[in-house]
Design goal:
By secondary structure, this protein is mostly beta strands. The protein has no helices and 5 strands. A 3-stranded antiparallel beta sheet has the order 2-4-5, with no helix packed on it. A two-stranded antiparallel sheet has the order 1-3.
Length: 110
């Protein structure tokens, strides 16, 4: 099924129960969430991840909202960044996370 996926502001996945240690979405300009929001999207937004029935996924993503090591939305800042996968589909409109539910996977971007 579909799962929301976002860049989160802190490169810390140590809270294995809920991954809250990764903080909120990368959002240096305090912009609303969602590709469908007329005032969005913010820099942490990514397309939904589509997972096959057998649990496998193959994905290639591109975002021009962030950069690796330059600008206000750089992923390799002092406290790093995390890629979080959520339990539910992101509707790309509702606040603050598009209804994408709890955090089920976390990866630190290095």
């Amino acid at each position: 099924g579909y799962h929301g996926m976002h860049f989160h502001a802190v490169g810390d996945c140590s809270d294995l129960a809920a991954f809250k240690s990764a903080g909120g979405h990368v959002n240096p300009f305090d912009t609303p969430h969602g590709f469908r929001n007329p005032d969005g999207p913010h820099e942490g937004n990514l397309p939904n991840l589509v997972v096959a029935a057998d649990g496998t996924v193959e994905v290639e993503l591109y975002s021009d909202l962030v950069e690796l090591d330059f600008g206000p939305a750089k992923l390799l800042d002092d406290d790093g960044t995390a890629l979080i996968i959520h339990t539910d589909k992101d509707d790309h409109y509702s606040q603050p996370i598009g209804g994408s539910g709890g955090r089920i996977a976390c990866a630190v971007i290095q």
